[in-house]
Write a sequence for this structure.
């Protein structure tokens, strides 16, 4: 019986394939395998690299208070940032299907991906500036706050401390010493503010009218001079101060001073009153939140991260959304489901594989976050915002000089990332099958 011919191999021979793969394998070994192996070896030695210390560096990770803060911050990042990015990406992807300029909207949201994290850090370092005239975040917050509450504050302003002063301080508020009758303007002179602080204010003037009126002003003149407890032409009125009319210890009416410091109560019955300037007038004006302080620094950096990556999540989820059979959505609407029920019971379950991939990818990404924390967090609060990747660099090259501990942190970070990478790879293989 004649022998069957050997099956001929289609395509190039395996030796030729290995020849073409060899450069990539060499680079893979040089850039990935060797650094991992050497880092593992280096993590078992001390800072000098000459003494074998075993697992001492790994023990230091969980015993040093500064390193424990980095682990806590990484936990916050892993719990908060991927969830918010995925949820916002889902919301944006669903909403873009209902607007006319969906492509332009997606382009605007995806545009931050073209900005490096270093540049994004510089941008948000300016956004989070404390002064509202420089920081966009506090400019928006103070604008909204001032729309519902007074924005003017005069910290340090006070009446003179002598018997001739017409007002005195009681529990932080300024109260007239004598009762004030309607038709007799009340004079409340204050000191404690520098002439430069009130240089742009309107000149004070006496109040007029038949009701309960008066003037609140700074009773000082640049260079000295002027008459005490009287309004001089060079003296400035205090605008926006809250003024209360008291009778029998109860507040009967409230008003505010005008630009020239005058005030007048409308609809107040004739009688004797005391005039009080509440303590709120003498607290500093609201200047927003301390975004770059130790309390808010981590949420602030996470906000910058979301700005960069929400567009990326939206594009991936939108691609999955376009693959959902429209018949399933229309059938649910015909059956009487509301849009919320369609979204919750049809759209989200069908998008679950895509959402899971986005979520796990974001977890891997936040575990390695470095640039934003390094750029946005000031040096004084960087220990409060520190993460494992930044601590690894700081310990090894940023002045710590302990590459043994730095290598241990890099291996620790690799161990954290590997399970999520394995999950993603297994998910991709399952989808291919």
């Amino acid at each position: 019986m004649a022998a069957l011919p050997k099956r001929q191999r289609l395509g190039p021979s395996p030796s030729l394939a290995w020849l073409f793969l060899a450069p990539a394998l060499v680079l893979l070994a040089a850039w990935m395998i060797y650094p991992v192996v050497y880092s593992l070896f280096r993590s078992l030695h001390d800072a000098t690299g000459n003494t074998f210390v075993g697992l001492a560096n790994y023990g230091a990770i969980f015993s040093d208070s500064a390193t424990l803060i980095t682990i806590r911050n990484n936990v916050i990042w892993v719990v908060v940032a991927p969830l918010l990015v995925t949820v916002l990406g889902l919301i944006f992807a669903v909403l873009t299907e209902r607007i006319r300029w969906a492509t332009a909207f997606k382009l605007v949201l995806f545009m931050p991906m073209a900005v490096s994290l270093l540049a994004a850090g510089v941008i948000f370092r300016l956004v989070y500036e404390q002064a509202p005239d420089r920081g966009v975040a506090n400019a928006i917050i103070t604008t909204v706050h001032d729309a519902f509450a007074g924005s003017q504050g005069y910290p340090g302003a006070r009446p003179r401390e002598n018997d001739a002063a017409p007002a005195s301080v009681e529990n932080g508020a300024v109260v007239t010493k004598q009762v004030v009758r309607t038709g007799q303007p009340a004079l409340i002179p204050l000191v404690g503010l520098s002439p430069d602080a009130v240089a742009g204010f309107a000149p004070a003037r006496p109040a007029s009218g038949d009701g309960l009126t008066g003037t609140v002003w700074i009773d000082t003149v640049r260079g000295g001079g002027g008459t005490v407890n009287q309004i001089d032409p060079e003296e400035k009125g205090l605008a926006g101060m809250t003024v209360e009319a008291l009778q029998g210890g109860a507040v009967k009416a409230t008003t505010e001073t005008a630009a020239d410091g005058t005030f007048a109560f409308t609809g107040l019955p004739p009688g004797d009153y005391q005039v009080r300037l509440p303590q709120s007038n003498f607290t500093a004006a609201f200047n927003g939140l301390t975004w770059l302080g130790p309390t808010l620094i981590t949420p602030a950096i996470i906000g910058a991260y979301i700005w960069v990556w929400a567009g990326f999540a939206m594009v991936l989820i939108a691609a999955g959304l376009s693959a959902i059979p429209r018949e399933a959505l229309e059938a649910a609407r015909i059956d009487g489901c509301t849009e919320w029920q369609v979204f919750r019971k049809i759209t989200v379950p069908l998008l679950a594989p895509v959402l899971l991939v986005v979520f796990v990818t974001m977890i891997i990404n936040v575990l390695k976050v470095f640039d934003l924390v390094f750029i946005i967090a000031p040096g004084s609060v960087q220990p409060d915002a520190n993460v494992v990747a930044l601590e690894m660099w700081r310990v090894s090259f940023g002045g710590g000089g302990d590459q043994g501990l730095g290598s241990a942190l890099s291996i620790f970070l690799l161990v954290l990332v590997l399970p999520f990478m394995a999950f993603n790879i297994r998910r991709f293989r399952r989808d291919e099958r």
Observations:
- The mean pLDDT is 88.
- The first strand starts at residue 167 and ends at 170.
